[in-house]
Amino acid sequence: MAIPVEEAIAALSTFSLEFKSLKEHRAAHFVLLDFPNFNHLDLFSFDPNEMLNGSFQRTVSKCRRMCRGPHGLTYRGDEQPDVQGLAVLLSSERYATNSPIEYSDVAAYRLSLGEDTKAINQLNTLIQEGKEMASLLYTYRSCVKALPQLPDSMKHSQADLYLETYQVLDLEMSRLREIQRWQASAASKLAADMQRFSRPERLVNGPTITHFWSMLKLLDVLVQLDHLKNAKASIPNDFSWYKRTFTQNSVEDILQVLIVFCVESLELDFALLFPERHTLLRVLPVLVVLATSSEKESESLYKRVKMNRLLNIFKMIILKSSDGADNDWSRDIKGNMYDIVVEGFQLLSRWTGRIWEQCAWKFSRPCKEPPSDSQHGSTTFFDYEKVFLMFTTQFYWLWTLDILIDYGHLTTYMQVVRWNYTGEERRALLELIGYIKSIGLMMQRCDTLVSEALWETIHMEVQDFVQDKLDTMLRTTFRKKKDLSRILSDMRTLSADWMANTSKGDPEHNSLETEEMRQSTFYPRPVAPTAAQIHCLQFLICELVSGGNMRKPGGLFGNSGSGIPVEDLKQLETFFYKLSFFLHILDYTATIGTLTDLGFLWFREFYLESSRVIQFPIECSLPWMLVEHVTETQDAGLLESVLIPFDLYNDSAQHALTCLKQRFLYDEIEAEVDLSFDLLVEKLNEIIFTYYKSCAASTLLDSSFTYLCDDGEKYFVKPLRFDAIFKLRRVMVLGRTIDLRSLITQRMNKLFRENIDFLLERFESGDLCGVVELQQLLDILELTHQSISKFLELDSYSLMLSEMQENLSLVSYSSRISSQIWNEMQTDFLPNFILCNTTQRFVRSLKGTHHSSQRSSASTGKAYFYCGSHDLTMAYQGISGLYRDFFGIPHMFAVVKLLGSRSLPGIIRALLDHISSKITAMVPKITALQEALPKSIGLLSFDGGIAGCQKIVHEILTWEAKSEVKTEVLHDLKEIGSALYWMSLLDIVLRQIDTTQFMQSAPWLGLIPGNDGQVKHAYSDNTPFTTLLSAATNAVASSPACPNPSSFLVMAKQAEAASLLYKSNLNSGSVLEYALAFTSAALDRHYSKWSATPKTGFIDITTSKDFYRVFSGLQYSYLEESINPSRKQEMLGDSVAWAGCTIMYLLGQQQHFELFDFSYQFLNVAEVENATVSLYQYSDRNKSPNFLQGYEGILEAMRKARRLNNHVFSMLRARCPLEDKIACAIKPSGAPLHRMKFTNTVSAFETLPQRAT
Amino acid sequence: MARAGGHGMGNPVNVGIAVQADWENREFISNISLNVRRLFDFLLRFEATTKSKLASLNEKLDILERKLEVLEVQVSSATTNPSVFN
């Protein structure tokens, strides 16, 4: 906030501000003394010079920035950027332009203006009354619609009801009658007034310029009133009505004077404020019509004012209103403070006036069809007559904007507003409103800083003129003219400020002083002249130049009849016009208020009346259309202007309350603002959320992919800035202060929760394969959260996630995701997915019911619930589509990441229980199959060859009656196998994660690889981590500069704890090994049933009680069926082998199986047979051995099965060595060896990680 | 000329003295009024600054409150099941 001194000095020298008077300091310190502490707090600095210059510097730099964008985003003490205009004006009192004491002080100057002042006050009262009536008429809404229709049942009380209705309506009618009466009386009073002052023979001073203005304004009000009343009557009728009133009196000459005054003011651009200009433009045609009621009169008028001048004014206006955005305003703002303020006012006036004119233009040219954007033909089409007509209609109505269009069709509000603005025009309008509002705000903010400077400048101008210039004139030009020099000295007397020098109180005396002495007499005083002084000065100048006769031909300063030299005339003219500027500059706040008031853009009473509806929908409202435009285009340049339209609402509410004085209008505006603000906040949230989500998605997208992609640009997000919006804690809307930031934060939190919920629901309605997509989308969401958290104080992501997962409780280890995963595993994954051992993937079996179709179809969410922009969503859907049809390692990574260490054990436990229950359920079925086998099964004989073997096997496997049991057992085995394989996948993933973690923590824990591949501790008692921190602590503690090393000691202790924790985490067990041990324990309960202990102690090779016999039979029949193309056998995948081999291995039957399995024996027989046959037929190798024909398929399937079984066994041997399993063996010598231990050979499956022993 | 004869200023000297006094009085008045306005301006800015600082404080308290609520729920879930921790 504090401005560097150099800058202040630069500002000082640039603008040569002389603000060093002692008074200045005293004045500022007057404020300072009461709040000495705030200086210290640096809320804002209060040094008067620095403050003035500093903020002026800011003002200027703001102005410069203004030339680039609609908002100079500067930050005040409250760190809120200025993206809104003035919400409320402190005071709109016009104490300079309107005399607060009704010019009663004019009499003090003894200028015999009593009559004139009385007339002015009378006219001003009439204007005030007229304005009130006009607002009454404008806001008048038909109350007939509100009256109830008379039902048949109430016919008897008809008369009473009508009486009631009459009484209701009577009140309204009486008001209208009153208006009419008032209008008539006001018109006649105006006419009388004009008549009184148009008689040159009456010895009355006046009319003065203020009087002219009052006349014009009253005429304006009357015209407006009349037009409001007869909204559908054509214009000539109205004119004629006035004509009757005015032609009764002879007022032509004053009308002519007024016309000349209007034309000159317009031509010289003398009206500082646009409302004044519009008044002149509105009244001028009326005056012209009134003054040209007869041929003779019009001749005399056109003698004074050439027709061309009038036409030029109108033409200029029309063409001006049609041209688009103006770029001329951006010229450098230079000069001193007064000039800047004047310039600022002029700019504001020009811009706001332009919006009015543009608005009127739009209203007069409704869009015929909603889709067509074509504009009406350019104005060059119109001939002058039409332009004139156009002009009158347009500006006749500007005050209310309800422009009556007499083009023969009724226009609706929709046509004039909703469809009438193209995107470009909305943008331009929004920017222009932004310029107006922010310049207005800026000027208002430096009100108290510049006002003294302004007063002083005005004082100096006036004093310079009356003391210096007038003196020169008195001594030269007017020396001989007694009358005129009297006027001049009157001017001096009534306004000169001779600063404490009583000897110079006498102007006559003073005029004789030497120039040098006079120069030194006045120095600036920061006091402005009063309204009465300016009023009198203007009057006297008029008197001077016109010689007391305004009705002379030529303009106010155009006549040379007064005998005043041209240069003096020029000076007088300049000063005359300056005087009228002074008033508006003195009314600083009120002028800004008028110039930045754009509330008219909301009002639509005229169209409500003509459309016969109660209110238009919000889409038709211009402010909302602008808000909508910003939210729809999402233009980075416009986003910060999104609150500007709410200034329009502020303005119109202010207008409704203070000018129109109608409560119901305010209520309507309030309701609309409520609605549109809610909508805005919601849309804004969506935009912000979508933007950051797109950014996150774009960041997480593989950059090498987007680089190679032909249209990779579409995955980049156009940058947007929301900083300004995030900082808005005080948005002023209709007098309320709204914390927009907290609203956004609140809704953002809600949006995140909704999004998480949506993603979880989506996962819940799909199958297990959707887990990768879920994880992807949650990752994007997390990154989005991270980037938004940089600006807003959002709830923590992990808490939100666990809240939505229903996982908050400390004692619950399940969550929505984990229960869904388990649910899916149980009902869909284990029964319906089959394993492919080679690809390490599960895929859905063909016959597996696609039960996702039975579920409720996933609700399609909005784009911002996925990845923000459409392109990114498509890209991510493409990626996740790759993972949708299988379950493998990537899915397992996603599962581990989503469940985390908290919920994962629950799943593992549930899965193990599932295995155990499946085994238990399998026991009776296995027993049934065992019973169907013969008591004793021998080895297959080689004699019969393959065919013989097949026959024998078929004889053994008499399970035809039990095919159902067989299928069930196969399915059970498949589920057990799938579960086990799932565990092994989980194991692989967990190992990988553990390894990563190990690699990260090893250097800190001082772990180094030993000789035998084991991990060694480099240091015996402590780790590098603790050493480092304890060394740092010691160094800090020993240093005398550190007064309180306790926190470092705590840190060192914490380091020890951390290294202990990490150390204990190193040797985490293997999930697969645990699962195998668990299965083994579950099997032990059924050991007696599935494994017959040989009575002799030797291997009983003929027994059929062992499990491997059943599995062998199942495998054989399954293989046989699987190659039979005629029977559509359900594919069970590789998990059956996993389950069978695991069970056999854990029961200690692996070697029995490898020896006595039917398929293995079958393969052996085929091999032998093949060898023998090929031996016999070595000469005829090319001839395929026909005895093997028909068996290739089954042999191939058996080989495959054997390979698979071997793989499983070797894996099992590696992961679960059965050291303490005991069996019997026979030594090569033939001696039996009881209770020998298995020796485990080194696994062939060496790719699996070894168990650390 | 409309203001001929006795229509001019009665006694220019008296009027001049009155005007001079008026200037001085008004200087005093405008000094006072300007400084009242400055005071008011300051109060407005002070209010704005305070409001936004309070708003940011409120925001932080809100966050803490919500976090506390979540933690309370977690703790209550633990205290209602003491058996789990034994």
TrEMBL record, chain A:
InterPro entries listed in its UniProt record: CYRIA/CYRIB_Rac1-bd, Cytoplasmic_FMR1-int
Pfam families referenced in this protein's UniProt entry, alphabetically: CYRIA-B_Rac1-bd, FragX_IP
Superkingdom field: Eukaryota
GO BP terms: regulation of actin filament polymerization
Domain CYRIA/CYRIB Rac1 binding: 118-253
Record-level Gene Ontology MF annotations: small GTPase binding
GO cellular component terms listed in the entry, alphabetical order: cytoplasm
PANTHER family cross-referenced by the UniProt entry: CYTOPLASMIC FMR1-INTERACTING PROTEIN-RELATED
Protein's recorded name: CYRIA/CYRIB Rac1 binding domain-containing protein
Native source organism of the sequence: Oryza rufipogon (Brownbeard rice)
